[in-house]
Design goal:
This protein has helices spanning about 10-40, 45-75, 75-95, 100-125, 135-160, 165-185, 200-205, 215-230, 235-245, 250-270, 280-300, 305-340, 345-350, 355-375, 375-400, 405-410; strands at about 415, 420-425, 430. With about 425 residues, it is mainly alpha-helical. Strands 1-2-3 form a 3-stranded antiparallel β-sheet. The protein is globular and about 60 Å long.
Length: about 425
């Protein structure tokens, strides 16, 4: 029986180890970077925000061509190279002392991170059968949260020390984490690159346009971006809501973050077990929409009551929110793979990943406007928008003449042939799901 927290031996466990290692460095970087750039480098906060916005905008664009590079040149080599480049970009932060060098290093860092995510998804598709991918992604998410928690704790020690040496030590830790991640990825089997389309073929004629020509996949990505607008909820919107609209104690902000992180670590794998194909994925997304609507309603009730009543409502809302988050994540992972062509997984995953960047960029503005500006009405509007987007996912995923595949066939790692016979397919030497 598979352990709920540890994936099976082989490529799945190696991918989880790479994710865990990388996340430790990322967690330390995330909690210290803003103060490092402000107090050590000497940049104004507004310039730090502008530079990071420009960098992640470039990262969103770079994900698609770097994902295509992983498809055509080999996912393992591309992932290792991009992990090294990301580490070098973090190392460059140790030496920058001006705005322009900071922006250049940040752009390289963001592009490499976006491309690394797409290349790792391509590796996963080439090494793991289709029916096992969502379960592995749940393991990877658990590993990511565990690594972030450890890294954030180490970053907190640096913040407590408050010295330049402590900040530099955190950035050096992140550099090492990328180097170790690259070394771990080298332990994976290589995945044969997808063959380039033949000259004159329809695929080659469309290759210049790429994934954006696939209107169904674009629509699914846009709907998923709407669902991801909740990403800054715990880090930004709820802390401001608690401080300005409730009498709940300030320490509850940290408690809700720990609750969310711990729940994902412990239960994401279990939540993903029932998602094995397009039909179950869209059902999971629909259910998450209802749960998120309930969470928003409960969060709204936290305003105007006593401190204990507000705290109780916030805890219940946070539990509902993390349940919705885990269901939406599992469903969207399955959709992102099942709707992508088997020979263009990196390109498609690079595009799907832009939703995260857009949500992180627009989410703070959307959530602060809705929740702090409109109060209860804003919470209900956020919940309603989530529900509408979650219900639209099913019809959009079915659009274009592609019927839902047999989930039993997907669990076997193949797709049903027209007569119902299982027809396994391969990328390199491993069976994967053909889309």
């Amino acid at each position: 029986m598979t352990n709920a927290l540890v994936p099976p031996r082989g490529p799945q466990r190696v991918l989880a180890a790479a994710q865990l290692t990388n996340a430790v460095g990322d967690g330390a970087f995330l909690v210290t970077s803003a103060l490092y750039f402000t107090y050590v480098v000497g940049l104004a906060p507004a310039r730090v925000g502008l530079g990071l916005t420009l960098a992640w905008a470039l990262g969103a664009v770079a994900g698609v061509p770097l994902g295509r590079l992983a498809d055509r040149r080999g996912a393992r080599g591309t992932a290792v190279l991009l992990a090294v480049v990301a580490g070098l970009a973090v190392a460059a932060f140790l030496f920058v002392r001006g705005f322009v060098p900071f922006v250049l290093a940040a752009c390289v860092y963001a592009a490499a991170q976006s491309g690394l995510a797409a290349a790792r998804q391509t590796l996963l598709a080439g090494l793991v059968p289709g029916g096992e991918r969502t379960g592995l992604l749940a393991h990877l998410q658990s590993a990511f949260n565990a690594g972030l928690a450890v890294g954030a704790g180490l970053g907190g020690l640096a913040l407590q020390a408050g010295t330049r040496a402590a900040y530099l030590g955190v950035f050096a830790l992140d550099v090492v984490s990328f180097a170790v991640c690259a070394g771990v990825l080298l332990r994976l089997p290589s995945v044969a690159p997808a063959p380039a389309p033949r000259a004159g073929s329809r695929k080659r004629q469309h290759s210049g346009i790429g994934v954006v020509r696939d209107r169904r996949y674009v629509a699914v990505t846009l709907l998923n971006t709407v669902l991801l607008l909740r990403m800054p909820l715990l880090s930004l919107a709820l802390p401001l809501w608690i401080a300005e609209r409730t009498d709940a104690p300030a320490w509850l902000v940290s408690a809700l973050f720990v609750l969310n992180t711990g729940a994902v670590m412990l239960f994401q794998v279990r939540m993903a077990r029932g998602v094995t194909g397009l039909a179950s994925a869209t059902r999971a997304v629909r259910r998450s929409g209802w749960v998120m609507l309930a969470a928003c309603g409960v969060f709204a009730l936290s305003a105007g009551g006593s401190a204990w009543a507000a705290a109780g409502a916030l805890v219940v809302g946070a539990v509902l929110q993390v349940v919705a988050e885990m269901g939406q994540s599992a469903g969207s992972w399955q959709l992102s793979f099942d709707l992508a062509p088997a020979d263009r997984v990196g390109e498609y995953q690079g595009f799907f990943g832009t939703g995260v960047t857009v949500a992180r960029t627009l989410g703070p503005l959307v959530l602060t406007t809705l929740l702090l500006g409109w109060g209860t009405a804003g919470w209900l509007l956020l919940g309603a928008a989530t529900l509408v987007a979650s219900y639209a996912m099913g019809p959009v995923a079915r659009r274009g003449g592609t019927d839902f595949r047999s989930e039993a066939g997907q669990r076997a790692g193949g797709t049903p042939a027209p007569g119902g016979e299982q027809r396994p397919q391969t990328v390199g030497s491993q069976p994967v799901l053909v889309n």
